[in-house]
Amino acid sequence: MRQYFLPAGLILAAIFALTLPNSGIFLAGHSGIKLTIIIIFLVSGYQTNIAGTPLNKVLLYVFLTAAAVSLLLAPLLGLAIGNLLALPSSLLIGLLIICAVPPTLSSGIVITGVSGGNMVLALMLTISLNLTGILTLPTVLHLCLKASGPVTLDQWALFTKMLLLVLLPFVLGKFLRIMVKKQQVSPNWSYVNSSCVILAVYISLAISRQEFFRTNAGQYLAVLFSVSLVHLLLLGINSQAAKLLKLNTEDSKALLFVASQKTLPVSLAVLAGLRQDTGNAVIVCLLFHFVQLLIDSVLASRFRIRGEEASKPQ
């Protein structure tokens, strides 16, 4: 049930945004997206528990590699592929934003677990990359947008937004867990996060409804191809990086899935904060999210089946 809740909810959000957009438009005018992002990171901080996690050289090397690929190389791949396919300005903006944001908050960890990977390492990478991404996102995105065309970005305003919408709620959530002395947190909290993502997507699509219909079939195919190519390249690069680092199978899977995925909520927050009209950029972010979930779920299932077959007595 839990694994289908978010994908099914996103599909329903798209349907309702296209047919019943008024509520989404109303929420957009009352800081709806910002509130959902705050709740997402507040709950994420409350759910996170890294006590007792070993810190060693391997973790440092894996983090540096993941940061280089996810936070620096990924936006460059997006820029190159977007220009190569001659994507329209708004679609290119969407591709650059989704490529520049940190990894997903939960699906990377969950998929790592499904594949039989190291979930503790996946959690550590997710937290560290999201916190580091607060620092890298404004500068990297500014440079990529500047290289793509006449798009301006207030780096300081974006940095401040990331602090207020991402870091502060996360720290408050973590502090709240310490205060209530909770050792175990109900997995049902993940439904709160997923519901907020669904609501944020509904709001974003509702206010971009007209652009959704103006996007033609050729542009949809170009977006689908570009996001698939970026994600597959990230998977390939991270797979080779794991081999160069001589990681074991479990650690390799954590690096592979976490550093290849991108978070939808932060990309929506960035889109909402841009001063110029971003048009149908949200479509790129949404398609990227669906594509990465589909590809990685299939890949994780194959890893799990292969592992089960290898463990069977001959």
Sequence-ordered SSE layout with sheet pairings:
Elements: H1 2-19, H2 22-28, H3 32-47, H4 57-84, H5 89-100, H6 107-115, H7 119-148, H8 155-180, H9 189-207, H10 209-214, H11 217-244, H12 249-258, H13 264-273, H14 281-311
Helix pairs in contact: 1-9, 2-9, 3-8, 3-9, 3-13, 4-5, 4-7, 4-11, 5-7, 5-14, 6-7, 6-12, 6-14, 7-8, 7-12, 8-13, 9-13, 11-12, 11-14, 13-14
Characterize the structure shown.
The protein is 80% helix and 0% strand. It has a single domain (2-305), classed as Na+/H+ antiporter like fold (Up-down Bundle), CATH 1.20.1530. The chain has helices at residues 2-19, 22-28, 32-47, 57-84, 89-100, 107-115, 119-148, 155-180, 189-207, 209-214, 217-244, 249-258, 264-273, 281-311. The protein has 14 helices and no strands. InterPro entries: Na+/solute_symporter_sf (IPR038770), Put_Na-Bile_cotransptr (IPR016833).
Largest sheet: none
User: What is the average per-residue confidence, as pLDDT, rounded to a whole number?
Assistant: 87
Order of helices and strands: HHHHHHHHHHHHHH
Low-pLDDT parts are none
Number of strands: 0
As for the number of domains, it is: 1
Distance between the ends: 34 Å
Find the structural class using helix and strand composition: mainly alpha
User: Which fold name corresponds to the CATH topology?
Assistant: Na+/H+ antiporter like fold
Beta content comes to under 5%
Count of alpha and pi helical runs: 14
Pfam family, one: SBF_like
Protein name: Solute carrier family 10 (Sodium/bile acid cotransporter), member 7
Keywords: Membrane, Transmembrane, Transmembrane helix
Transmembrane segments: 27-46, 58-85, 91-114, 121-143, 155-176, 188-208, 220-242
